Every structure is written in C-alpha cells, then in structure tokens.
Amino acid sequence: MTEHLLNVENLTVEFKSSGSTMKAVNGVNLQLNKKETLGIVGESGSGKSVTATALMRLIPSPPGKITDGHIYFNGRDLLQLSEKDMRNVRGNDMSMIFQDPITSLNPVLTVGNQIVEVIRAHEKISKKDAATKAVEMLKMVGIPEPEKRLKMYPHEFSGGMRQRVMIAIALACNPKLLIADEPTTALDVTVQAQILDLMKKLQQEHDTAIIMITHDLGVVWELCDKVNVMYAGRTVESTTTRQLYDNALHPYTWGLLESQITMGTQEQERLPAIPGSPPDLTMPHSGCHFASRCPLATEICHHTAPELVEVQSNHFVACHLQSKEQIVERKEGIFNAAK
Amino acid sequence: MQQNREPILKVSNLKKHFPIKSSIPFKKATQFVKAVDGVSFDLYKGETLGIVGESGCGKSTVARLINQLITPTEGKVEFNGVDLASLKTADIRSARKSIQMVFQNPYASLDPRKTIEYLIAEPLAIHGIGDDASRKKRVVDLLETVGLSAYHAKRHPHEFSGGQRQRINIARALALNPAIVVCDEPVSALDVSVQAQVINLLKDLQRDFGLTYIFISHDLNVVNYMCDRIAVMYLGKVVEIGTYQEIYGNPQHPYTQALLSAIPKENPFDAKERIILSGDVPSPVNPPSGCAFHKRCRFAMEQCAQIQPMLDTVTDTHQVSCHLFRVNSL
Predict the structure, then answer these.
(1) Do B264 and A216 touch (CB under 8 A)?
(2) HSE-up of A215 (CA within 13 Å, CB side)?
(3) Which of A31, A210, B133, B260 could share a disulfide with A37, CB 3.0–4.6 Å?
(4) How many domains, chain B?
C-alpha cells in the first residue's frame, strides 16, 4: 500500500452535554493523497464540520473529545503529538478556511497584521519581509492594490474579498493540506464561482491537497476527485466523484442526488424529497441511522447497523443492500406492492 | 396569455432610499443608500414571480415595500387597483391580510417563548377573526395543511427542526387566507433534502388555494423550478424580466448570462464555459454612472458609462435594460 498524505482511521468524536453523550463522528476513515481533492458531503448535523475540526485537533474540550482513532499525516499520528508540536503542524502543514469569513477574521486588527502574524509564527523572518510576503499573498489571491489593502480592516472588505484574505492566510506557509469548511456557502453564486476558480488555480500551482466540506453537490462536481457522503456521524458512501454520479448505491446518496434542484428539474411535477429529518444523535440507536427515512428499509436495517464494505474496487457503501441488482429488485418490489 | 389578465399587484417605479445619518447631530442626511431604485412589475393571479440577484441588490427591500413594512420613497404598490401607500394605517393592516410573508430564517422568525398554537393563531387574533375555539380549530387545520399534526400545537419552536419551523411559518402566513404570499428566501437556510420538501409543499399549496407567490431567492436553480416569471435585479434595478423559459433559454442581459453561468455544474463531466465576473457589486450609495453594471460587463461600450439604459421589449413578456440589446436589435 502506498503511503497516503492523510490517513484517518476510525475517528470518533463525542460531545458530552448534561447527562447525554452524542457521537458526532462515529468511526470515520479517510484517505487522501497529494494534490487530491476530497469532498465531504452531508446535511447539517451529519458530522462533516466536526470531522474537519478534529483533523486540526480544534475540537473544544470540554465538551468535545476525540475518543478513538488515529490521524496519520505524512506517517505521523497527530493525536499523539503534544499541543506545542500540533501548533506547528497547523498553518505549516495543514490549514483551514471556515464558512463565515467575517467571524473568522479579527475585526480590530488590519488584514496585513493578521497575515504577517501567521507568517511570523512559522518562519524566522523580519516584520518587513513578512509584510512583503503578505503583499504577494494578497496579489496571489487576486486582491487589487494589495499594498493599500494591507492596511485596511476586515469590515472594509466585501464577503468575497474576506474569503480571499482567509485563503491567503491559510496558504501563507504553503501547507500540504487545506481544509475548507463550506468556504462558499455564505457567498453569492458569482463570487462562489470566483473563489472555486481561485482554489483550483492555487491547488495546481502549489500541489496542495484539499478537503472540501460542503452540502452542495454542485461544488463537489466542480472541484473534487473523490467524495465521502456522511450521514449521522458515519460515512455511508465513499468513492470517486464520477462513480458517485454514475452509480450511487446508498439510498441516502440517491436521495441527495435526486432532491438536488438543477436546471433540468423544471420538467418534473414534484421533487423527490427525502421524507423526515435527520435523527437526534443523543438518543441511543441501534441499526442504520437512515432506516427511518429510507424507502427500502427492511427488518434488519432497524436493528443491525451496516458496516462500510467495499462493494466494487474503490467504492465503499454502508448499506445492507450492497449491489445495484439487489437495490433495483427491492425498488421494484416496493413499486409493485404500491400498485 | 398572462397579458390579457388584470394584474393583482402592480408595482410602478418603486424607490426606497435609506438616508445615511450624519455624525453631526440634527444635520440632514446628504447621502442615501439607493436600495431600490425604480422597480416596476406586474403580478398576475396564480403565478409565481421570482426575484433573483446577489446580496445587496435590493430584493428583500422590494419584499418589505410590497408589504408596506417600510414606506417607499417614491412609486406605487397597487393591490387590486388600490395604492397601498395612500391608505391609513388601519387600512394597511387589513390590506396586509391579503399579502402575507414567509421569512428566510426560520430560527429568528418564531418567538421562542410562545407555543405553536399561539404563533399561528396570532394573525387571527390581531385581525379579530373568530373566537378562541374556532381559532384553535383553524390552527389544527393549518398544521395539517402544512404536513404537521394537531399534537404539535402545544409545543415550542425549539422542539422543531428547521424544515418544520418553515412549515409553521407557512401555516402562519396562510392563516388569513391571503391572495399573495411573499416568500423571502424561504428555503435557503434549509438542507437540500428538506428544501425539496418545503418547495413541494409551497407548490401544493399554490395549487390547492390558488395562491400567488413572489419568490425571492439567490438560488437560480430553485427559482427556475418554482417560478413562472423571473425578474433579475442588480443594484436596486430590474435589469431583465421574462418567463423562466426566456430568462434561462435566451438571457439578453450580460449580467443574467454571467449569473446563469456561475451556477455550479449539474454533473462532474459537464465542461461548462464560465463567465467570471470580476470585482464585487458596487456600493448602492454611489452607484456607477450610466448602466450600474458597466464596470463588470464584458461588453461595456462607451455609452454604457454615460446613459442609463431603459427597459426594452424583447417579446411581449420579456424585457431587458441593456444598450447592447438596443444596438443589436437596430
């Protein structure tokens, strides 16, 4: 087996709140190679953001805790590192962009200060040189008049510009891995297109691997090589982007694909929606979390949780129905019964 | 075919300029945010009119102006032939019975300390419709209409998910049997799978109760699915309006074209030609001279910086405000 840049094994994160424990992430495995882009897709509460924060070891503790698993980055287990060493990894080796650029920038420091701070935290370099580098970074992410912009405060920037600044900060030390947590959700489509383009360009120039967390499949098609679909803290399906589009196997993934509204949707009368809403993870639960919303659920789904198994090469699914034939058969059965 | 019908709502030359207060006390404001700057459209019974545009283009302000939640600086909103701005406060209230609103954020628009029953019955109480018992019955009916159950009535908003809360908001908007429902980004705070449920519900209700919708969204896919006609706004103005086939199939304005090309791909293998707009939406305080879009426009000509384009007719139902169209059609 070749060495992956990032190899996450059985990651489990729990949150404790008055009396109950919630498994926000439950045994997630991820593999990512150099220059690759991995999409993590799921609805709110599916654990995708918690997974990302756990990779950076930024889970607030208490109440949260990584209770199990390993995160191997370049062969080193990040969970074994001291806080001091971990601080060196963040920013240098891997860095993160958050969803909301206004809350992630400090409003009382100039943008320049914030970029310089990151550079100087990781490199022995004079303030002046760091400032020159900051100008370069801003130029790289396409901010006009970077020298002038350096002295401005975040509130003087628009949403798209702030996200560019965040990207500049994240890439300041040439990380090998960039984790982007819904970087374009708060932005308009036209600006989203600009930012996605920028990320693609920078990835090619710097050979960065990207983990893209999103609920928008459109963004996945745009950017990602492979996808992890998460539901209720577990990976339910994991494969290449192309395979997922052509040949999604998990009923939840179909639901997502079908309820996505695209340009072609106009012809149909009704949208195929997934009934119900995601489960409450504080409740003890046996069986598949999706069973209560799943059109194909059978007896076994309600009491035995399915394992994630490789049904085809590089295509992992956690469902009791594991082949297309099985699923089609079951679908027809339900259809005939309805008749 | 829609042109033969009498519009239920007529908006003409609607303007809203918000003053920027000077830091000197008692000094009159000299600068204005031109949030809405001359918007006109007709709304026909039973249709869904979509309003799309980027943040800050004035779409939510239009919604609030229609409902008379804020008073327009200039222009008229006529509902069934009556200018709403000319009405007294009490009369506006009764007019609002017919124009209800569903807001974007289902977490902020429901009072966390009230029960669902109270929240849905509140519009009935305000307008003095029915007695306690009949209101309770109506609440149950409404809950069932939007796909919730009678036992939800005694609960509080925090016990519901985002999608359910938006259903409650919709039930509340329907309580007074409105003719028009203004939906301001009703699904943008919801997850995809839940989004589809709420959109289906809105479509069902429209069919069952003959509702007319104004549907405000920044999500072009949702608008395409929901709407019969679409108005594209940029910096307080409507730059293009037409049926959804016309807007999506034959967009005339360069801004509409860019907006459509910015939608993420439908599948991973679709090699899509992108028109990337440079820069950001300019400030509505000092909008650029001439056409507000000319600084970001691929086709900007000399006259675009000087003369403000008017809405030109493409077809009976399709209008665009762009010099390029005028030049090309000559």
Answers:
(1) yes
(2) 21
(3) A210
(4) 1
